[in-house]
Amino acid sequence: MKGIFGILWPVCALAFGLVAFTACGDDEEENNGGDGGNGGGSGTVPSVSEAGITHPVSSIWYADGFLSQFNYSDGVLTGGYDAEYLGANVTINQSPLEIVAHEESNEGGYYELFEMRYYNIQTNSRGAITRTDTSWKNAYGYGDEREEINLTGSLTGEYDAEGYLTKVVTRSEMNEYGMVYTLENVFEFTWQDGNLMGEKIEYKMNGEISETQVYTYTYAENAPVNSGIFMPDFVLDSDVIYYAGFWGKTTKNIPTSCSWTDEYGTHTEYYTVEMDGQGRITSLTEERHNHTFYYGYPDTGINAPTNRSIAKKSQRCQAFQRMWAPQLSHIRH
User: Fold this and answer.
1) Which of 28-32, 127-131, 264-268 has the lowest mean pLDDT?
2) For residues 251 and 214, what is the distance between their CA atoms, to the nearest angstrom?
3) What is the pLDDT of residues 150-179, one digit of tens each?
């Protein structure tokens, strides 16, 4: 399904070089007043209740064995470990508002540093991001022979009157071997009665659509009430950022299925959930792929398999490509 681009981070590094990102958009409730410079923006940290979360999740065990964990203080998510999308510790700083993902290691003489920052963050009155500057840094190598990739940019989000994310736009320019590529990614979401009904993604290169992906969600008449999880394929950049409420509300009910069409035909994924006695979702299963995601809560922990893995840098490339520049797979193979 969406979000899976099967190339490793070193391939991403070779393909990029230096990229400058820009994005545009507006929001009637945008919290303006950022200093416009290198300092903090005018954003505020949302309460998780603003995301439609009635029972905050403390951990997620993903189908591939990665375990994400979230930290809370007075109803606000303050950070955690994003295992599935970034493979890094994530900290949410409040004065000024910044989101920083950081992971550094040196094993067997191989050094690696990964850092992602959202800064100069602007939010609407609910605390959802309307605009943020971003930067990515990845350094790796043996001894003194290291490669370093530095990327900067910005993105915007738009929301409906109820606080649901309706649009994210990213734009970028890449100069590779004297060729300039202009990339634009548009993510559009449709909602009905608080439920996610569809997602359309357009990837453009030099003004021409290079790929379009359309996903349609259906709901049973007695669709389970969502206690506060985000559908795994809805997350763009980081589960920590989503569960903090920075990208608006989650779906009111759990869909029965999601359908999409590609060059191989039309496909449908079916979802089932299990709940505890308090109505909290403890697992979600994708029947077609036979993937089960487990959810833990502060008072009960998580009931998941014990084979838990450490996230790899391929996850970072996956998140980066889906959000920013999947067109690169068409440029370089």
Assistant:
1) 28-32
2) 18
3) 777 788 999 999 999 999 988 776 666 677
Range of the domain at 55: 9-331
Rg of the chain in Å (alpha carbons)? 19
- DSSP per-residue codes, 299-333: TTB----S--B---HHHHHHHHHHHT-TTHHHH--
CA dihedral defined by 274, 229, 59, 276, rounded to 10 degrees?
A: -30
| CA-to-CA separations, 147 to 139, 142, 160, in angstroms, rounded | 6, 9, 42
Quick one: which of 38, 187, 44, 39 has its CA closest to 122?
44
Nearest to residue 159, comparing CAs of 193, 123, 133, 185?
Answer: 123
- 293-316 residue pLDDT tens: 999 999 988 887 765 554 444 444
In a domain, 3, yes or no: no
CATH number of the domain encompassing residue 149: 2.40.160.150
pTM of the model: 0.80
